[in-house]
Amino acid sequence: MINTIKGNGFLFRSTRSMPRQVGLSSVPHSRSFFVSSLCKYGEKETLNKFNSELNVSPLKETLDSKDKIQGKSEKTLHQLLQSVAVSKMLDKKGKNTVVILDEGESVYSAVKSMSDKDIGAIVVSVKGKPRGIFTERDYMKKLILKGRSSKNTPLRDVTEYSLSTVTPETTLDQCAELMVKKIIRHLPIVGTDGTLVGMMSVRDIAEHMVNAGFLSKDLQLHKNPSTVEDVFNKLGRVSSEECFVQESDSVLKALELMDKHSIGAVFVLNGQTLSGIFTERDYLHRVRLQEKESRSTDVSQVMTSKVVVISPAEQIGKCLDVMVKGRFRHLPVVPMIGDQVDCGEYRTVLGIITLLDVVRFLYRLGQDNQ
User: Fold this and answer.
1) How many domains are there within the chain?
2) What is the predicted pLDDT for the residue at 253?
């Protein structure tokens, strides 16, 4: 079940155990939720969208039931992803979503560009050729927590010159394989002359994976029984120290916790009650570019308080669909009891599932089915 919570937010690392089922009377702060309208995705819409991206005429047959979907494709997930080249995605996405800056440019210029474009990374060039990548997390770890000035620090001082790239001829399956193996979210696209022509993100892969997953004979996402809980178990996630801050804590404390646990967000509490989350993107937009001080700014002033949450028992197909449609990089996972969300105390929060988690899980599931 996927729900939108106003006022009470959630985020987590993860635990393998399923939530303990308790009665509503024992959860003093449980509250009603609203079912997200993002959950519905018609199969016919899926078929038309996927075929249009392949420049193939949509199937003429009207789909009256989900059973007809599985008969329309004899290809597996990997075969469907292999049939789409990066160039087709690039034609649709365009080049205006990628930013390349010379290594001599300031980190501040990179941060400003990421904010203006609402992206999480920029490519760093040396003599016009892409050589590295700089992300929101790099900014947090290498600048803010080390007390360095973004306006006085050139990108060359904080960029690792190790870059995985793809070409317009690379298939989406090859891109997904790289991301899964290296656990990365961005792949610069370079032309035959080595110049940057675009950026492939894990979101791009996920969007195509939604369509291919519904069509493929092996996954059949509309009826696949795999759940959010299965993702944690498959990827071998382990419990970690709870990463929470109080509303009155400083932004700096939140950043230090995110760095310590290598996560992109932390929970925000009001006493013992969850009230929001604070992410790397929140920091970029609401703190740094608003020229607020991390030490003197309370998390409550810059956190996200309206959060979409998901049950650990939710099917993975619906989870992926919601993340793609809502453009969510994280979905907090909390126990659901009937039509109530158990958000009474922070210890009821189970974890967070990321878009990269889902892509990794489905890609490996496709491999297992071959």
Assistant:
1) 1
2) 94
